[in-house]
Specification:
249 residues; alpha/beta; Purple Acid Phosphatase, chain A, domain 2; five-stranded mixed β-sheet; four-stranded mixed β-sheet
Length: 249
Protein backbone atom coordinates (compact mmCIF):
# COMPACT_ATOMS: atom_id res chain seq x y z
CA UNK A 1 0.00 0.00 0.00
CA UNK A 2 1.42 3.43 0.93
CA UNK A 3 4.52 3.89 3.06
CA UNK A 4 3.72 7.59 3.62
CA UNK A 5 0.61 9.77 3.40
CA UNK A 6 0.64 13.53 3.92
CA UNK A 7 -2.42 15.77 3.98
CA UNK A 8 -1.48 19.13 2.45
CA UNK A 9 -3.39 22.27 3.45
CA UNK A 10 -2.88 25.87 2.42
CA UNK A 11 -4.44 29.32 2.52
CA UNK A 12 -6.80 28.83 5.45
CA UNK A 13 -7.11 32.62 5.84
CA UNK A 14 -8.67 32.50 9.29
CA UNK A 15 -11.62 30.43 8.10
CA UNK A 16 -12.03 28.31 11.24
CA UNK A 17 -15.17 26.61 9.93
CA UNK A 18 -13.42 25.33 6.81
CA UNK A 19 -10.29 24.44 8.78
CA UNK A 20 -12.23 22.34 11.28
CA UNK A 21 -14.07 20.50 8.50
CA UNK A 22 -10.81 19.65 6.72
CA UNK A 23 -9.11 18.50 9.93
CA UNK A 24 -12.10 16.29 10.74
CA UNK A 25 -11.89 14.75 7.27
CA UNK A 26 -8.16 14.11 7.67
CA UNK A 27 -8.76 12.46 11.04
CA UNK A 28 -11.56 10.32 9.61
CA UNK A 29 -9.14 9.02 6.97
CA UNK A 30 -6.56 8.31 9.72
CA UNK A 31 -3.84 10.35 7.99
CA UNK A 32 -1.05 10.93 10.50
CA UNK A 33 0.94 13.67 8.77
CA UNK A 34 -0.15 17.19 7.76
CA UNK A 35 1.80 19.97 6.03
CA UNK A 36 0.56 23.57 6.10
CA UNK A 37 1.68 25.95 3.33
CA UNK A 38 0.84 29.28 4.92
CA UNK A 39 -1.48 32.29 4.75
CA UNK A 40 -3.06 30.87 7.85
CA UNK A 41 -4.76 33.70 9.75
CA UNK A 42 -5.29 36.76 7.54
CA UNK A 43 -8.96 37.44 6.80
CA UNK A 44 -12.18 38.98 8.24
CA UNK A 45 -13.21 35.67 9.83
CA UNK A 46 -11.87 33.95 12.98
CA UNK A 47 -8.09 34.32 13.05
CA UNK A 48 -7.82 33.67 16.80
CA UNK A 49 -9.89 30.48 16.68
CA UNK A 50 -7.85 29.24 13.75
CA UNK A 51 -4.61 30.04 15.54
CA UNK A 52 -5.67 28.14 18.67
CA UNK A 53 -6.51 25.06 16.61
CA UNK A 54 -3.27 25.00 14.64
CA UNK A 55 -0.92 25.86 17.50
CA UNK A 56 -2.37 22.92 19.42
CA UNK A 57 -1.81 20.60 16.43
CA UNK A 58 1.86 21.59 16.11
CA UNK A 59 2.18 20.60 12.43
CA UNK A 60 4.91 21.67 9.97
CA UNK A 61 3.89 25.13 8.74
CA UNK A 62 5.61 27.63 6.47
CA UNK A 63 5.03 31.36 6.35
CA UNK A 64 2.76 32.95 3.76
CA UNK A 65 3.02 36.51 2.54
CA UNK A 66 0.02 37.58 4.60
CA UNK A 67 1.36 35.82 7.71
CA UNK A 68 4.43 38.00 7.24
CA UNK A 69 2.32 41.15 6.86
CA UNK A 70 0.48 40.49 10.14
CA UNK A 71 3.68 40.58 12.17
CA UNK A 72 5.31 43.40 10.17
CA UNK A 73 5.49 46.97 11.40
CA UNK A 74 1.93 48.28 12.08
CA UNK A 75 2.53 51.08 9.59
CA UNK A 76 3.01 48.58 6.73
CA UNK A 77 0.03 47.56 4.57
CA UNK A 78 -2.46 48.79 7.13
CA UNK A 79 -6.14 48.20 6.34
CA UNK A 80 -9.37 47.61 8.31
CA UNK A 81 -9.07 43.84 7.78
CA UNK A 82 -5.43 43.81 8.86
CA UNK A 83 -6.31 45.83 11.97
CA UNK A 84 -9.12 43.39 12.76
CA UNK A 85 -6.75 40.43 12.48
CA UNK A 86 -4.07 42.04 14.66
CA UNK A 87 -6.62 43.05 17.30
CA UNK A 88 -8.04 39.51 17.35
CA UNK A 89 -4.71 37.79 17.98
CA UNK A 90 -2.94 37.54 21.31
CA UNK A 91 0.78 37.46 22.07
CA UNK A 92 0.98 33.67 21.76
CA UNK A 93 -0.60 33.73 18.30
CA UNK A 94 1.73 36.47 17.08
CA UNK A 95 4.78 34.75 18.52
CA UNK A 96 3.82 31.57 16.68
CA UNK A 97 3.57 33.48 13.39
CA UNK A 98 6.98 35.04 14.00
CA UNK A 99 8.59 31.60 14.34
CA UNK A 100 7.45 30.40 10.91
CA UNK A 101 10.15 29.98 8.26
CA UNK A 102 9.58 30.72 4.57
CA UNK A 103 10.47 27.18 3.47
CA UNK A 104 10.85 23.75 5.04
CA UNK A 105 11.73 20.16 4.14
CA UNK A 106 9.66 17.36 5.68
CA UNK A 107 9.82 13.58 5.36
CA UNK A 108 12.96 14.06 3.22
CA UNK A 109 11.02 14.11 -0.06
CA UNK A 110 8.84 17.21 0.42
CA UNK A 111 9.91 20.83 -0.06
CA UNK A 112 7.34 23.25 1.38
CA UNK A 113 6.86 26.87 0.37
CA UNK A 114 3.93 29.25 0.13
CA UNK A 115 4.67 30.91 -3.20
CA UNK A 116 8.03 30.02 -4.73
CA UNK A 117 11.21 28.84 -2.98
CA UNK A 118 12.52 32.43 -3.16
CA UNK A 119 9.39 34.53 -2.60
CA UNK A 120 6.23 34.16 -0.52
CA UNK A 121 4.26 36.60 -2.70
CA UNK A 122 4.78 35.12 -6.17
CA UNK A 123 2.75 32.40 -7.88
CA UNK A 124 4.86 29.39 -8.80
CA UNK A 125 2.56 27.57 -11.22
CA UNK A 126 0.85 30.56 -12.78
CA UNK A 127 2.03 33.77 -14.38
CA UNK A 128 -0.09 36.90 -14.64
CA UNK A 129 0.07 39.27 -17.59
CA UNK A 130 -2.06 42.03 -19.07
CA UNK A 131 -3.88 39.34 -21.09
CA UNK A 132 -4.73 37.07 -18.15
CA UNK A 133 -3.50 34.15 -16.05
CA UNK A 134 -1.72 31.17 -17.60
CA UNK A 135 0.12 28.08 -16.42
CA UNK A 136 3.90 28.30 -16.59
CA UNK A 137 5.59 25.99 -19.09
CA UNK A 138 7.50 22.89 -17.98
CA UNK A 139 10.75 24.56 -19.05
CA UNK A 140 10.03 27.63 -16.91
CA UNK A 141 9.20 25.51 -13.88
CA UNK A 142 12.18 23.20 -14.35
CA UNK A 143 14.48 26.23 -14.46
CA UNK A 144 12.91 27.74 -11.32
CA UNK A 145 13.31 24.49 -9.37
CA UNK A 146 16.63 23.26 -10.74
CA UNK A 147 18.43 23.67 -7.40
CA UNK A 148 15.93 21.63 -5.37
CA UNK A 149 16.94 18.13 -4.32
CA UNK A 150 13.49 16.99 -3.18
CA UNK A 151 11.27 15.18 -5.72
CA UNK A 152 8.02 16.80 -4.50
CA UNK A 153 7.38 20.53 -4.07
CA UNK A 154 4.26 21.65 -2.21
CA UNK A 155 3.10 25.23 -2.80
CA UNK A 156 0.02 27.41 -2.40
CA UNK A 157 -0.69 31.14 -2.70
CA UNK A 158 -2.87 31.14 -5.83
CA UNK A 159 -5.73 29.16 -4.17
CA UNK A 160 -6.29 26.98 -7.26
CA UNK A 161 -5.47 23.29 -7.00
CA UNK A 162 -3.03 21.95 -9.57
CA UNK A 163 -0.68 19.00 -9.96
CA UNK A 164 2.21 19.37 -12.42
CA UNK A 165 4.71 16.66 -13.33
CA UNK A 166 7.97 17.90 -14.85
CA UNK A 167 10.18 16.12 -17.39
CA UNK A 168 13.01 15.80 -14.83
CA UNK A 169 10.70 13.79 -12.54
CA UNK A 170 9.81 16.53 -10.06
CA UNK A 171 6.21 16.77 -8.93
CA UNK A 172 4.52 20.04 -7.93
CA UNK A 173 1.31 19.94 -5.90
CA UNK A 174 -0.85 22.95 -5.09
CA UNK A 175 -3.76 21.80 -2.88
CA UNK A 176 -5.89 24.89 -3.44
CA UNK A 177 -7.31 26.86 -0.53
CA UNK A 178 -8.94 25.59 2.63
CA UNK A 179 -10.68 28.84 3.43
CA UNK A 180 -10.95 31.18 0.43
CA UNK A 181 -11.99 29.55 -2.87
CA UNK A 182 -11.89 32.73 -4.96
CA UNK A 183 -10.49 36.25 -4.92
CA UNK A 184 -9.44 39.17 -7.09
CA UNK A 185 -6.09 40.97 -7.05
CA UNK A 186 -4.61 43.95 -8.88
CA UNK A 187 -0.93 42.95 -8.82
CA UNK A 188 1.01 42.64 -11.02
CA UNK A 189 -2.08 43.05 -13.23
CA UNK A 190 -5.77 42.92 -12.39
CA UNK A 191 -6.86 39.27 -12.30
CA UNK A 192 -9.22 36.81 -10.64
CA UNK A 193 -8.62 33.33 -9.24
CA UNK A 194 -11.60 31.08 -8.64
CA UNK A 195 -12.42 27.41 -8.15
CA UNK A 196 -16.13 27.53 -8.94
CA UNK A 197 -17.49 26.06 -5.70
CA UNK A 198 -17.35 27.02 -2.00
CA UNK A 199 -15.86 23.75 -0.74
CA UNK A 200 -12.80 23.67 1.53
CA UNK A 201 -9.97 22.03 -0.38
CA UNK A 202 -6.87 20.04 0.48
CA UNK A 203 -4.75 17.31 -1.09
CA UNK A 204 -3.43 13.94 0.04
CA UNK A 205 0.01 12.99 -1.29
CA UNK A 206 0.80 9.29 -0.91
CA UNK A 207 4.06 7.48 -1.63
CA UNK A 208 4.31 3.87 -2.73
CA UNK A 209 6.67 1.69 -4.75
CA UNK A 210 4.63 2.52 -7.85
CA UNK A 211 5.11 6.26 -7.42
CA UNK A 212 3.19 9.24 -6.08
CA UNK A 213 -0.58 9.33 -5.80
CA UNK A 214 -2.39 12.68 -5.49
CA UNK A 215 -5.95 12.88 -4.21
CA UNK A 216 -7.67 16.27 -4.27
CA UNK A 217 -10.44 16.57 -1.69
CA UNK A 218 -13.34 19.05 -1.62
CA UNK A 219 -15.02 19.17 1.80
CA UNK A 220 -18.46 20.68 2.51
CA UNK A 221 -18.85 22.89 5.57
CA UNK A 222 -21.05 25.74 6.78
CA UNK A 223 -19.72 28.34 4.35
CA UNK A 224 -22.78 30.52 4.98
CA UNK A 225 -21.68 30.98 8.62
CA UNK A 226 -18.19 32.00 7.49
CA UNK A 227 -19.59 34.33 4.82
CA UNK A 228 -21.88 36.01 7.34
CA UNK A 229 -18.92 36.78 9.63
CA UNK A 230 -17.03 38.29 6.68
CA UNK A 231 -20.08 40.44 5.93
CA UNK A 232 -20.33 41.55 9.57
CA UNK A 233 -16.67 42.56 9.43
CA UNK A 234 -17.16 44.80 6.42
CA UNK A 235 -16.04 42.50 3.63
CA UNK A 236 -18.96 41.71 1.29
CA UNK A 237 -16.39 40.69 -1.35
CA UNK A 238 -14.98 37.95 0.91
CA UNK A 239 -18.53 36.90 1.78
CA UNK A 240 -19.39 36.29 -1.88
CA UNK A 241 -16.08 34.55 -2.62
CA UNK A 242 -16.62 32.19 0.32
CA UNK A 243 -20.29 31.57 -0.40
CA UNK A 244 -19.92 30.93 -4.14
CA UNK A 245 -16.33 30.06 -5.01
CA UNK A 246 -16.58 32.67 -7.73
CA UNK A 247 -14.59 35.87 -8.02
CA UNK A 248 -17.24 37.56 -10.14
CA UNK A 249 -20.79 36.59 -9.24
Amino acid sequence: MFDLQVAVVSDIHGNRWACEAVLEDIERRDIQHIANLGDVLYGPLDPAGTARTLIKLDIPTVRGNEDRIIVASPEIDDSPTLRYVRESLNAEHLQWLETLEMTAVVHQDFFLCHGTPERDDEYLLHKVSATGVSLRTSDELTSKLSSLAQPVLLCGHDHVLHTVYLPDGKLIVNPGSVGLPAYTDDAPFSHAMETGSPHARYSIVSRSGAGWRIENVAVPYDWHAAANVALENGRPDWAEWIRTGRAHV
